[in-house]
Amino acid sequence: MSENRIKKAFEKCKHENRAAFMPFVSAGYPDIKTSQAIMDGFPQAGADIIEVGMPFSDPMADGPIVEAAGHVALKNGQTLQKTLNMVASFRQKDSETPIILMGYYNPIYIFGVDNFLDEAKKAGVDGLIVVDLPSEEDGELCLPALKANIDFIRLTTPTTNDERLKTVLKNSSGFIYYVSITGITGSKITNYDKVEKAVKRIKSQTELPVCVGFGIKTADDAKAIGKHADGVVIASVLIKALGDSLENEKATKQSVNSVLEIVRSLAKGVRQAR
Amino acid sequence: MENNNLRNSLKNGPDENGNFGIFGGRFVAETLMPLILELQSEYKKAKNDKAYQAELSALNSTYTGRPSPLYFAERLTNELNGAKIYFKREELNHTGSHKINNCLGQILLAKRMGRTRIIAETGAGQHGVATATVCARFGLPCVIYMGATDVERQAPNVFRMKLLGAEVVPVSAGAGTLKDAMNEALRDWVTNVDDTYYLIGTAAGPHPYPAMVRDFQSIIGHELREQFLKVEGKLPDAIVACIGGGSNAIGIFHTFLDDNEVKLYGAEAGGYGLDVENGHAASMSGGKPGVLHGNRTYLLQNEDGQILEGHSISAGLDYPGVGPEHSFLKDSGRVNYVPITDKEALEAFQICTKLEGIIPALESAHGLAQVIKLAPTMDKEQTIVLNLSGRGDKDVETVGKHLGVEL
Ligand SMILES: Cc1ncc(COP(=O)(O)O)c(C=O)c1O
Predict the structure, then answer these.
(1) Where are the domains of chain B?
(2) Is-catalytic flag, B99?
């Protein structure tokens, strides 16, 4: 696969005059089989790009819902290798939908950066979002990833002023992820206008697509944000719905569909935004 | 020649990016980067500001009660029949530990930066109490994050914080200890970036915290050098301190790093013993380098890079990481880091109480246990200094429980 899947996905959405829809799945939550089925079902349900959360014991930027999901996954024996295996399994069925791995640096550091990039490339990973690697630490993973042709997607936030934005954009690739709030995952967007302004400000400084995540909960949110952003990420609502479907932390018959149903509904919202 | 010496100095760290060799750095979410960069530049300015330094110095002497005394522990020395043992008595500071040294430095900085809300994490509650104290003193609202387990085992300190006007938020994630409190404080900070100052309590976290906290705590070592030369006419042969995140230790070690004749020992929390998985909090003796809470450092972790919870009888040492400068000093071989078990610390706690009439904090008792091992192996003309980092009033209940006494 020499074609850049991320680029292609955004081109397709642009052609259809809509934002890309990007749901999140926490790898191994509540178990590998269920999270694999959710991931495998995403494209049919309207996902353009998939974000796969790599669980970490101490996820500093995540709220209680995403954190708890990761802890259940870890308790059930999820590892970075198993997450990579899930991506590889997905790739055998789908060669188009881009996969972004999202998580924290330590498990990658311990896996070994070169080893990780090799395995990620082989599995069919397209991009990485590593929350605790700001531009100041580009030498750790960002530059090696770019060399390995894996996009390194960086977060910008309401605290990223114009001066700082230059630094953040420097080695960014794939797309820019605008974190719509100062805070943790699971909080709610309160001001669409502010987000719109921020997206426009970032777009004036980069050719890369600008996607918005954190705080998108309803089809209306998705619609409002998808009007101006190039992509819309949703996570906590999906994890919450999945959590609600469990019995004694175990998946039920409804689990996979309870997530995919929301994905369908929000994907529709995004498609009606413009 | 002098340049050459400077280049070989162990005191040069960190570099501009906060690295001590491979350790340290700034591994934080982008939301926090602008804040950390601002803090770095403000701290640099404050360091060279005479008015700031004068205010800090005045508070150190009139509010904290510095300099803290250097005390010759005569009965302990006689009992162990080896090196002469001295205590650097940080436990006599206002609020009962070395933590106040750092809190005063940082609260003045927060004030300079116009921050109006202070947050902090705490383990033993000593840093929480010191933070709540300076917040009361400067009229700033204060939120303290504390693991739920620690809220229970350090109950007297929780009440003290509340009396001082702080809001104490128990954190039940994980094992409910210091690591979890730090996660929660970071989440608060990411959420309230506009008005909030994060007053980290140990020499760890993202740059510039490890260097800044060290600088504020280095007053311990500077005083010690002067006091010791006065009474003994030479430098001590050994200095011992306990290691949680490492602030009291780096504070007493730092000025002596290039004095190679002074042996330095850091006592880590050996808990139930290093061979018990997840049963200790000795990150350097029993962990390996990784990235957590903004810095690369030695961490207790599994083979997948997930952080372990660890265990120590002492809430202040119950942390799976350590400040990055200690990791650097471990690899350089300059400081000898040794594990001390819960049991050894408990014994040392009782010995000190009975022989010297000083109830040490369980944290400091780990250092004391190392002194008890070391002194008999040294000559009578030799000297050891223990950094007696805190008093043990807060631990009386915990110790009672372990000795089978219900209070
Ligand atoms: C009395 C005392 N000593 C030592 C410590 C450990 O911290 P540090 O290693 O930063 O000195 C604590 C922490 O709570 C403490 O209360």
Answers:
(1) 18-61+99-213, 67-96+218-402
(2) yes
pTM of the model: 0.96
Query: Which residue's CA is the closest to the ligand 1 atom numbered 12?
Result: B316
3-state secondary structure of A234: strand
Identify whether A51 is a catalytic site residue: yes
Which tens digits make up the pLDDT trace of A131-162? 999 999 999 999 999 999 999 999 999 999 99
Q: What is the dihedral of CA A57, A60, A66, A69, to 10 degrees?
A: 10
Does residue B402 have a pLDDT over 60?
Answer: yes
Q: What gap in Å lies between CA B306 and CA B285, rounded to an integer?
A: 18
How many domains does chain A fold into?
1
ipTM beyond 0.90?
yes
User: Domain containing A217: what range?
Assistant: 5-271
Residue where the block lists tokens 């230790």: B249
Our mutation pick for probing the ligand 1 site, out of B68, B99, B212, B312, counting the most ligand atoms within 8 A of Cβ, is B99
State the amino acid at position B126 in one-letter form. Q
Distance from CA of A79 to the nearest CA of B (A): 6
CATH 3.90.550.10 fits B18-61+99-213, yes or no: no
Q: Please judge whether A107 and B305 are an interchain contact, meaning their C-beta atoms are less than 8 angstroms apart.
A: yes
Residues with CB under 6 A from ligand 1: B 97, 123-124, 126-127, 202, 242-249, 316-317, 361, 363-364, 389-390
Q: Which of B89, B93, B97 is the pocket-test mutation for ligand 1 (most atoms within 8 Å of CB)?
A: B97
Alpha-carbon distance of B195 to B111, in angstroms, equals 11
Residue B376, chain A, CB below 8 Å: the answer is: no
Q: Are B213 and B102 in contact (CB under 8 A)?
A: yes
Tell me the three state secondary structure of residue B74.
helix
Q: Using a CB cutoff of 8 Å and minimum separation of 24, what contacts does B60-68 make?
A: B60/B101, B60/B104, B60/B219, B63/B94, B63/B104, B63/B137, B64/B93, B64/B94, B64/B100, B64/B101, B64/B104, B65/B92, B65/B93, B65/B94, B66/B93, B66/B101, B66/B219, B66/B223, B67/B223, B67/B227, B68/B92, B68/B93, B68/B220, B68/B223
For chain A, the helix, strand and coil percentages under 3-state DSSP, each to the nearest 5: 50, 15, 35
| Domain B18-61+99-213 shares a fold with domain B67-96+218-402 | yes
Taking CB atoms and an 8 Å limit, are A58 and B307 in contact across chains? yes
pLDDT digits (tens, 9 = 90+) for B303-315: 999 999 999 999 9
Q: In whole angstroms, how large is the CA radius of gyration of chain B?
A: 20
**Token digits of residue B203:** 């020499």
B98, B90 in Cβ contact below 8 A? yes
Question: How many A from CA of A141 to the centre of ligand 1?
Answer: 34
Tell me, in angstroms, the distance from the centre of ligand 1 to residue B378's CA: 27
8 Å CB contact of A168 and B30: yes
Cite the DSSP H helix spans in B155-280: 155-163, 178-191, 209-217, 219-232, 247-253
Q: Give A89's contacts (C-beta < 8 A, 6+ positions apart).
A: A36
**What SS3 class is residue B137?**
helix
B67-96+218-402 classified as CATH 3.40.50.1100: yes
Q: What is the CATH number of the domain that holds A126?
A: 3.20.20.70
- Look up residue B148 and give its amino acid: A
